[in-house]
Amino acid sequence: MSSSQNSTVTKEEMFDGNENHINNGNPFSVLVVDDDNVVRTIHKMMLEVKGMEVQLATNGKEAVDLHRVGACFNLILMDKDMPVMNGYQATKELRDMGVNCPIIGVTSSTEEAELEEFMEAGLDDCICKPLTIEKIACYLPGVASTSTANHRDDYDDYVEVEDENADRASSTNSNNN
Amino acid sequence: MDVIVQLQRQIVDFTASLYREGYVDDQFTQLQKLQDESSPDFVMEVASLFFVDCEKLVNNMARALELQAVDFKQVDSHVHQLKGSSSSVGAARIKNACIAFRTYCESQDREGCLRCLQLVNHEYAQLKIKLQTLFRLEQQIVAAGGTIPVLQ
To answer: Could you tell me which of A70, A125, A63, A116 has the C-alpha nearest to residue A94?
Structure first.
């Protein structure tokens, strides 16, 4: 699910053709917005080992407040379901404020309708957790994409496990009786 | 040196069994790849954070399901969060249990939810024991002067 129509920054403007980021010599900065501490920790490390500078926000309001005081990022990774202000609301507010960097939704949701609604807030792309660098490689400088997998393949895996779960649940239940 | 080789063999076999038995998936491999000299305990730290979160969420689910009038949206929200964090650490069996759990929340099936809660609790307890064993083996190797082998 991809629609690079919302950020006004083109890839040509981001990189100088040699995958060197044009950012006045500053490191490529990413804002990770997620209410889950485990997820924030993992995403931060994934990006930092690739040389990105990472800032964290625990909900959409924190992300919006950062921009209100003048913070600026090259990429935002936005969780969907968060307390205080969710990813949909935060994305809408950021776009209304004129924030034009790529915003990628990162969610555990697999419902088509929910993902489409999230996209409508102004996302450039929406991916299912777990996040991997391959899934966002095209938005990161100096990171080659090696994956040919369709992001939506994650959904097919979820459908398959439902039957396995039903078996395991009834097996655990009978073992405990 | 024999001790180190033996420990390394044990770790490789044990890690392979974690994947074979579905406790962890490729996302766990991604976490291990992030661990290096500058962050030698990264996987253990993330696992510790995950276990704390998991316990908190399971307790929240249990309390919500005890109520006379169960708020299934609230239960679902806790399950959704656990699904996200478990998929991010590669805790495959917990993640899969959450997927089933959500369908029972959607159909507002209290008994189904309670069965799934039991399963989630069971899988969490199993994974915790397995990973603690793995980390103990890794610490033994490092203490003996060896390096931790990475399963390819």
So the answer is: A63
Cα(A69)–Cα(B47) distance, integer angstroms: 35
Assess A51–B contact: CB distance below 8 Å, yes or no.
no
Block means of pLDDT (10 residues each) for chain B, length 152 residues?
88 95 95 90 96 96 95 95 96 96 96 97 97 94 86 66
A45 in contact with chain B, both atoms CB, cutoff 8 A? yes
Query: Cα dihedral angle (B58, B60, B66, B67), rounded to 10 degrees?
Result: -160
CB-nearest to A130 from B27, B81, B115 is B27
**What is the C-alpha separation between B115 and A166, in angstroms, rounded?**
10
Using the Cβ of B102 and the Cβ atoms of chain A, whether some distance falls under 8 Å is answered with: no
Q: Who among B53, B87, B116 is closest to A37 (CB)?
A: B53
CA neighbor of B121 nearest in space, from B98, B151, B105, B99: B98
Which pair of tokens denotes residue B39? 């962050």
Interface test with B, best of A32, A35, A42 (most B CBs within 10 A): A42
Q: pLDDT tens, A109-142?
A: 888 999 999 999 999 999 999 999 999 999 998 8
Return the structure tokens found at B50. 């995950």
Which tokens go with A94? 């950021």
Look up the pTM and report it: 0.83
Residue A159: Cβ-neighbour burial (10 angstroms; 0-12, 13-18, 19+): exposed
How far apart, in whole angstroms, are the C-alpha atoms of residue B73 and residue B67?
Answer: 13
What ipTM did this prediction achieve? Answer: 0.91
Helix (H, G, I), strand (E, B) or coil at A131: coil
Strands A29-33 and A53-57: parallel
